[in-house]
Design brief:
The chain has 83 residues and is an all-alpha fold. It has helices at residues 13-26, 30-49. It starts with 12 loop residues before the first helix and ends in a 34-residue tail after the last helix.
């Protein structure tokens, strides 16, 4: 048999007043309203755990590779004159 645990928090007077007003309007006790809210949130988060976020695919810009220009010389630089 599993035991129950107590969860507590501190609220300002204004926050507590709003909580009591919310409970009064819904006809729930503070404990019942908080438990339902916590379980609802846990259920929402559990559903998100099984849905992995889509991977973002980034498209890289094509890289331009330039071939080095080779200087071609013609003329007197290429000839040797022998006397």
């Amino acid at each position: 048999m599993m035991g129950s645990k107590v969860v507590s928090t501190k609220l300002s007077e204004e926050e507590y007043g709003k909580l009591v007003g919310l409970c009064s309007a819904s006809g729930d006790t503070v404990s019942k309203l908080l438990k339902r809210a916590i379980l609802s949130r846990m259920s929402e988060d559990a559903g998100r755990e099984y849905k992995p976020a889509p991977k973002q695919v980034t498209e890289e810009a094509p890289q331009v590779v330039q071939k080095p220009k080779i200087k071609q010389t013609t003329g007197s630089d290429d000839r040797f004159l022998y006397y």
